[in-house]
Structure formats: C-alpha cells, structure tokens
Amino acid sequence: MNGQLQLTEEMSAGAARLRVDVYGGEPRQHVLEDLTFLNYRLADVRISPEVTLAEPDIVWLQDGQRSIAYDGRAMHFTGPWAAGPIQKVVVTMLALRMESAGLHPFHASAVRHRDRTVMFLGGESNHGKSMGQIEACRRGALLVSTETTVVDEAGRVVAGSREPFLKKRTEGTERADKAAPDRAVEKFFGAMPTWTIHAEPSVVDVVVVPAIDGNFDPSCAQMIPFERQFQTLHSLQNYFLLNELLAPGQPMPLVDTDPLRKARAAFVARFSERPYYFVRAATPQVLMDEVDKVL
C-alpha cells in the first residue's frame, strides 16, 4: 500500500461493524466529519472508541487518479473523493454487514397505531411513506421510524431513523430534482406535528404500500404474495445503490452476489407472510382514512 496510514476508524450500526483505513494525503480526524446522512439512512451509526476488526472493509488511498473497485470483501477508493460518495459507500457496506448480522434495513417508515406496528413501505415507487407516517402521528400514533426501519430475522423493528427528511446534502450528493423537504408538510399539514417515540422493539403487524397523488381516487387492496415480495425486495435493495453513480463516470461497484440475493429473497418471503395493503389516495389524510378501515 502506497502512502502513510493516516487513519483507521471503526463505525457501528447495531451489531454490525465497519473498519475504514485511510492512506496518504492530508491527515484526517475522521473519515466523515458529519454523520447526519448515515443516521438518516441507517438509523443509528456511531464511531467506535476503538478498532476491533482485524481487516478493513473500506480502504482509501487519497493520492492518485480517482477510481473505485470492490474485491468481493472490501471497497477500495483511490484519489480525491468528496464526502457524499464516501458516505454512500459507507451506507452500502454497513448494510451488507448488517445483513450478515441478521439485521435488515428497510426503506420504510413505521408507527405504533391502535396497538399495532404499521410499516409504510417505500417500495418500487416510494410515494407516501413519510406523509403517511406524519399523518398517522398527527392522529396520535407513536413514531417508530422515519426514513429507515431496521428489522431483525423475526420481523421485529429493532431500530429506526428519527428525522423525517434529509435537510442537508453533502458535496457530491446535491439533487436539483428534490423539492424542499418541508414543502409537502406545508401543503398537507400547515406545520409539522409533534410526536412521541415508541422505542421498544415490536413486530411489524401490517405493511402499507402507499401511493399518494392528487389525481387518485381512494382505494385499498390486499396484496398477493408476489406483489408483497416484489415491493419488499425493492425496499431492501435500496441500500446497495446498484443503479447509482457515485460521481460522473464512476458507477457504484456491484456488491451483490447470487447467494446474498437468494438469502435476501428467503427473508423477504418469510417477512411478507403478514398482511400487506396497497393504498391509493389523493392526500395523507385520505390515505390514513383507508388504513384505519383495515386496522
């Protein structure tokens, strides 16, 4: 390895741990100075006080021409990279380590409503999981999670993010196509409601795949097994960034394998045995009216 070792740092998300080694370039205090995005995407990411892993999961050689490669176990960065792409790779690699520890991050929000844990699944389209969660909390539901819901092998929610929106984007992840995060809240609610956190682990009782669009007439339909598994797999795959560019000309390396996909699909089949509903509505209020009918 060319260059002097500048930093070895370990991060954790639940039982999953990730080691990052940084070589060459300027000395660094941390791999990432701001963990806002990591906590938004993976619920609770912490920098560990000591390094316990024998090998790195991410190696960054700061000198040289920019490139990225995955060797089947570790991700290798070369050259100057902005914080945005680095944090995306940290999320992906931590998500892989979480899977190996029996934890599954869902792109989904969740609430404790009428003594049931209801998950709003951000599936293929991702149209309404945040608005559904906010309206449920406005009706008195307890907040379980916002952007990410971490579920164990038994289908229990064991962790969840707490911020409904990402208000700050790091260099390299800016998006002109994303509306101001509070604009929909102003439109539908006037102001953000307050809520109480439900922190105890709880089994997901009902899954709602929401579709909010001002042109929709309200409808609520139970989903067949294929639909349930299809939408759930989309939610889980969201963390592996297989369809994303990290930077111009630099796609996210493929981190998935057939054994991983088969194991994920087996978990999806088990998890999808619970009731699922596809709910169309023009507003979050009408969405929750439909959800309340089936609870």
Task: Briefly say what this structure is.
This protein is of the alpha+beta class.
Structure description:
- The longest helix is centred in the N-terminal third of the chain and has 18 residues, at 83-100.
- The strands form three sheets. Strands 7, 8, 9, 10, 11, 12, 13, 14 and 17 form a nine-stranded mixed sheet that branches. A six-stranded mixed sheet has the order 3-1-2-4-6-5. Strands 15-16 form a two-stranded antiparallel ribbon.
- The mean pLDDT is 91.
- Helix 1 runs parallel beside helix 2 (83-100) and helix 3 (129-138) packs across helix 7.
- It has two domains: 5-100, no CATH class; 103-294, no CATH class.
- The chain is an alpha+beta fold.
- 27% of the residues lie in helices and 29% in strands.
- The N and C termini lie far apart (58 Å).
Output the keywords.
295 residues, alpha+beta, 9-stranded mixed sheet, 29% strand, elongated
Layout of strands and helices, then pairs:
Elements: E1 5-13, E2 16-23, H1 36-42, E3 45-47, E4 58-61, E5 67-70, E6 75-78, H2 83-100, E7 103-113, E8 116-121, H3 129-138, E9 142-145, E10 148-152, E11 156-160, H4 183-189, E12 202-203, E13 206-212, E14 219-222, H5 225-237, E15 245-247, E16 250-251, H6 258-271, E17 276-281, H7 284-294
Parallel strand pairs: 2-4, 4-6, 8-13, 13-17
Antiparallel strand pairs: 1-2, 1-3, 5-6, 7-8, 7-9, 7-10, 10-11, 11-12, 14-17, 15-16
Helix pairs in contact: 1-2, 3-7, 5-6
